[in-house]
Write a structure and sequence with these properties.
Blueprint lengths: L4 H13 L7 H4 E9 L2 E5 L1 H14 L2 E12 L2 E11 L5 E13 L2 E11 L10
Parallel strand pairs: 1-6
Antiparallel strand pairs: 1-2, 3-4, 4-5, 5-6
Length: about 130
Amino acid sequence: MTRTAVQVVDTYLDVLYNQRRLDLVPELIADPTWRHAPGEVKQLSLAESMARLAKLLDLCPVLRFETAVRVVEGPMVTVAWNGWSTQTSGKSYTMSGIEIFRVHDGKIVEIWNSREAAGLWQSTQTF
């Protein structure tokens, strides 16, 4: 049975990240996947996606995401989330972000990503 777009994204955020279930990557992420971030678009193979996620989880022994808002329109799922992490260095962050996922045949094929960590801009903004 193929997961719906919202089931795929919920599993990606709530299970893969929060429960650290890298074994789910082949079920949730297409090969290849396109990742859009400020100033760049990258095509990642499944192996590259797996390596990226493993590196992130290794860097952040504490990492948690909580969905605040979800908007679903067909294969497109937009999620506003809050996140918390502590890195291996001991440094902790509170983050928020908005991601747009495009799901096809039960797998994420494209992700647009924007996030901000507390303290990142506060020291440089004057408005």
